[in-house]
Recover the amino acids of this structure.
């Protein structure tokens, strides 16, 4: 499907799914940075969705209302990322990367953790897995955005057979050991594994381009996903947090609300090894050049969590960073303006 048809389809689907209540709620979030009346904000959101190929939440999260036209034009958007996934990655990319058990098998040397398939394992298999790993994480084998994930303490599972049946009923059939997190990231927030999301593109000549890198941090939950209440901050090319963190509701965190740790300036341990790991892993996906990688940091080095063929876009809102331009130029430099901007 060509770029123009993808764009038209996206706008048509967006119009079909338009939820006026949600649109008004998003517009009210914009009131944090703008004094404009709600009808003006809503009109501007609709205009930007067409003019800049911008999602409504993009408009909110990146403070688009307060930006000038030339500044608005510098932001990468989720609709553009949707098109890149569809045009750069092979049709089978969703199957290749969306099946978590397949991914864990294909990248077993980089994941640093044990796992088991509860849908095929016996009760005795699960009992042995719990005996080896005091805490396990259960998730759907093909889930996205952190949905359906739970952590279980082995000591609290009294009846393995009943628990096994519950896992299958809840579609939590992928069980993994909970990774031990590096002390530096435990100090930021210890109740979730705080991960690096690295968005990369491997060009036809085989060169890997790191387009964006972020640190995702949990906040009151066992996972760090932005969609599930977590926060994020952008990292520089050395793995150092450039700004305070933000969450999906546009809250800005200069310190973590649980630990009090200052976000800006956090240094991700083993960051050079993270880049090396992603470079190696990307070679194994020749038909999927555009990927969002999730990496945990253990005391012994990075551990690959998963790869996303349809990565979200991460940029820092101007009210948190003081910078009024986005990262569209990074995508253009890596992939080519003719591909990124083609409509």
């Amino acid at each position: 499907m060509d770029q123009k048809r993808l764009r038209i389809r996206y706008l048509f689907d967006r119009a079909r799914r338009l939820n006026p209540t949600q649109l008004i709620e998003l517009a009210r979030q914009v009131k944090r940075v703008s004094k404009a009346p709600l009808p003006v904000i809503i009109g501007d959101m609709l205009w930007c969705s067409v003019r800049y190929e911008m999602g409504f939440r993009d408009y909110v999260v990146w403070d688009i209302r307060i930006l000038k036209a030339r500044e608005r034009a510098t932001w990468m958007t989720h609709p553009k990322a949707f098109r890149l996934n569809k045009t750069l990655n092979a049709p089978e990319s969703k199957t290749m990367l969306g099946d978590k058990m397949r991914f864990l098998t294909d990248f077993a040397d980089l994941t640093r953790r044990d796992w088991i398939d509860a849908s095929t394992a016996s009760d005795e298999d699960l009992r042995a897995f719990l005996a080896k790993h005091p805490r396990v994480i259960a998730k759907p084998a093909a889930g996205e955005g952190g949905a359906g994930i739970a952590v279980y303490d082995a000591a609290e599972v009294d009846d393995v057979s009943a628990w096994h049946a519950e896992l299958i009923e809840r579609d939590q059939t992928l069980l993994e050991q909970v990774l031990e997190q590096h002390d530096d990231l435990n100090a930021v927030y210890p109740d979730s594994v705080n991960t690096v999301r690295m968005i990369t593109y491997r060009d036809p000549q085989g060169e890997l381009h790191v387009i964006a890198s972020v640190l995702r941090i949990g906040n009151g939950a066992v996972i760090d996903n932005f969609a599930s209440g977590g926060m994020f901050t952008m990292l520089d090319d050395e793995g150092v947090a450039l700004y305070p963190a933000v969450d999906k509701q546009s809250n800005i965190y200069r310190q973590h609300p649980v630990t009090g740790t200052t976000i800006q300036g956090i240094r991700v341990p083993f960051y050079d090894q993270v880049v090396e790991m992603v470079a190696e892993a990307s070679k194994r996906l020749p038909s999927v050049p555009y990927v969002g990688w999730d990496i945990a940091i253990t005391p012994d080095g990075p551990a690959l969590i998963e790869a996303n063929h349809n990565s979200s876009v991460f940029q820092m809102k101007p009210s948190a960073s003081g910078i009024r331009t986005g990262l569209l130029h990074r995508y253009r430099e890596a992939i080519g303006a003719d591909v990124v901007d083609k409509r």
Remarks:
- The longest strand covers residues 208-217.
- The mean pLDDT is 91.
- The chain has three domains: 3-74, 90-106+181-308, 114-177.
